[in-house]
Amino acid sequence: MADTRFLVGAAGWDHPEWRDVFYPEGLPEDWRLAYYAHYYSAVLVPHSAWTSASPETLANWLRDTPQHFRFLLAVSPAEPSDGGLSAGKLLGDKFAGRVGGGLPAPSAGGELRLLWLSQMANLRELARRVEEARQFPGPVYLIEDGNDLKRLQDAATLLEVMGLSPAKVLV
After folding, report:
1. Rounded to whole angstroms, how far apart are CA atoms 22 and 35?
2. How far apart are CA 165 and CA 7, in angstroms?
3. What contacts 162, CB < 8 A, 6 or more positions away?
4. Among 7, 13, 67, 11, which residue's Cα sits nearest to residue 36?
5. Percent of the chain beyond pLDDT 90?
6. Is residue 105 a contact partner of residue 98, using CB atoms and an 8 Å limit?
């Protein structure tokens, strides 16, 4: 098998529906990314979140996430071709690439490989797609592009069952 790494994440980490369900009651808002990053290995940052983030906020994001964590930046269709690259530079090694119009955009290291969890009919289809992705080296992002916490958790559990837990494959 190729040296494939699977990273599971959602579009954003601060969904109102997750409060007091995923996040413990009373968890301060500024601790949510660190809590999320304890369970998941990537996040697709909505366009409005990263474009309004100050350099200090981006530095906090880096501090609040482990070394293996990766940030994908959502780019709007009207974004200039260099959109997200300045924020990406500030995110350093944790910047995985840009995603726009629902399709992956090439990152500095090549083509970004995404599996959109919302497009999988069921876990059996996701398992088949994961097996196919294992044939090629590099990272594969399993992204929940809505706010379906159950689908996100099911994807992480599936990787564990398949022996591909992000905690085991990311060094």
Report:
1. 9
2. 9
3. 127, 130
4. 13
5. 64
6. yes
Count the neighbouring beta carbons within 10 Å of the beta carbon of residue 18: 17
pLDDT of amino acid 3: 81
Supply the pTM of this predicted model: 0.87
> Mind listing the pLDDT tens digit for each residue in 109-159?
456 899 999 999 999 999 999 999 998 888 999 999 989 999 999 999 999
29-37 — which CB contacts under 8 Å span 24+ positions?
A: 30/60, 31/64, 33/61, 33/64, 33/65, 34/64, 34/65, 36/10, 37/13, 37/64, 37/65, 37/66, 37/69
Sheet with 42-45: list strands edge to edge: 103-104, 95-100, 70-75, 42-45, 4-11, 138-144, 114-116
pLDDT in tens, 61-73: 999 999 999 999 9
- The dihedral over CA atoms of 150, 155, 160, 161, expressed in degrees to the nearest 10, equals 90
Q: Two tokens at 16?
A: 């109102």
